[in-house]
Amino acid sequence: MPLGIFRVCLVVITAIVNHPLLFPKENGTVPENSKEIIQKMKEREESLRLEKLRLEREIAEQETTQKALEKAAEVVEESKEEKGCWDMWTALSMVIFLLIELWRQDFQEGNWQDTGGEEDDMAVLGKAFKGVMFPDKAVLATFCEKRILGTTGDMARMREMVEGFADDLLEALRSVCNRDADMEVEDCMGVGSMYENWRVRKPFVCDLIVPFAPPEPYCFRSQTWCSGDSFPPDKQGYGTIEVCRADEDVTGCICDKTKLGEDMLCLLHSQTNTTKPTSEMEDLLCFKNSQYLDADQVMKWFQIAVTKAWNRISHKYEFDLFFSLLDSPGALKIKFRSGKSISFNLTPVVQYENSDVYFISHFPRSSLGGDIPSSTHWFVTFAVYERRFIQLVSKMLPANACHVSCLQILSFLHGKQCSLTGPSGLTNYHLKTVLLHLLQARASQDWAPENLEARLQDMLKYLEKCLHEKKLYHFFIGNGKVPAELGFPIIFQRAEPLNLFRPFVLCREVYRKTVDTFHEMLRNMSALINEYMVHIP
């Protein structure tokens, strides 16, 4: 308590001592500086007033800006609502357009077989025919009779000679092969233009296919691109061939699909007869470390077997036999002592199930082809069914029908044009495919001999349409109207149509070259025919 009173007294004394009025002489500057203090206070008051005005203006401006932003937000909101309505109508229009486009494509794919039979559709086409002088009926008929039909006898004699020699060669091949280890070779079959009687250009080349099978107890199990397995787009039209033991029933036994356990065994399949990738599989012409048949291995085996067979029978013939193309296993040439020669192709194939569809080891590739497929992918050929279809349709056509003549003239013109301007993406197989479509689409009486000019124009216009659309569908694949008499496998009829012109979409340079060659052929058509008519005696 006394300490607190002492502190209070100390504070009071200090205040009294420091009061300015007690020492006026020491603090005489206070009255003199009062005016300066008042002036500073006024200046401070003025600055505060100006600051207040500035703040009031800023608040007013912020309120104005806020109101403008609110109005802009309202306008944006209204525009969003309007844009939302517009976007809804735009999206609805796009959906309707896409549905119409999909329906149009489905309709075209569903009716692609019938396009060739509509005269109105043909009338719309033919833009490239403007200004083209088309040969008349008399010139075309004379050209066919003198220039083309005269080669029929030569083709018949050549076919007979080649078939006889091929049978003898294959018989010798069977004798030199080991039946317990080598492939079993069957009889050959003739396919292609020489056996469909529309080959025009020389030299004539016979195409023979030779089916072969593995030795017992092995067999081939094949898979195609349309069998349900995933094949890339560039492998459409190909398949794979697996070498298996004949006693392995993949679909019937579940031992490979379930785990039986260590103390359980399958009575049908033991561990000793399970096919594994070994050197034995390589002896069966399989790809290394796999069970898939290798086309390159087949090529080597076939060339060696043909060489051994020829060495056994060469003493019976007065000519020489040798391989004409190194990259084709069966491209053979017979050379006589007189200097003349005959070329033919003897190509090994594998049969697809119990049909006449075959996997061909090496197929002639045109400039349309892209990357060469792997050696385990085999091209699927329908050459036997194509020959049968032409024979079947020919029986229902009028006498001396003009269908073969149309194909011969078109093949002749295209070949001559390519010899002048260089090769194009079109092949004779494309031309034959066009004919097959038109044979199915048109009535039998339309192919009477007097309609040669009209049908040739139809083929050219149909080909022009396909080039314009970059679509030429394979005749058999995806065609549900194949005659039942052919016994064609249903799996290929139900498959998606295969576009033979798909490479045109991928390679624009080849497409441009092909179109230019086609148009040039149309312009030179009359000149080419008249030129070769002059040389006819």
UniProtKB/TrEMBL annotation:
One Gene Ontology cellular component? plasma membrane
- Kindly state which keywords UniProt assigns to this record, in alphabetical order: Cell membrane, Coiled coil, Glycoprotein, Membrane, Nucleus, Receptor, Signal, Transmembrane, Transmembrane helix
Transmembrane helix as UniProt keyword: yes
Cited InterPro entries = ITPRIP-like, Mab-21_HhH/H2TH-like, MAB21L/cGLR
GO-annotated molecular function = protein kinase inhibitor activity
Task: Show where the Mab-21-like HhH/H2TH-like domain sits.
Answer: 404-477
Give the highest taxon in the source lineage.
Eukaryota
Query: Tell me, what does this protein do in biology?
Result: Enhances Ca(2+)-mediated inhibition of inositol 1,4,5-triphosphate receptor (ITPR) Ca(2+) release.
| Sequence similarity | Belongs to the ITPRIP family.
Q: Which PANTHER family match?
A: CELL FATE DETERMINING PROTEIN MAB21-RELATED, INOSITOL 1,4,5-TRISPHOSPHATE RECEPTOR-INTERACTING PROTEIN
Q: What is this protein called?
A: Inositol 1,4,5-trisphosphate receptor-interacting protein
What is the scientific name of the source organism? Calypte anna
Which taxonomic lineage is given here?
Eukaryota, Metazoa, Chordata, Craniata, Vertebrata
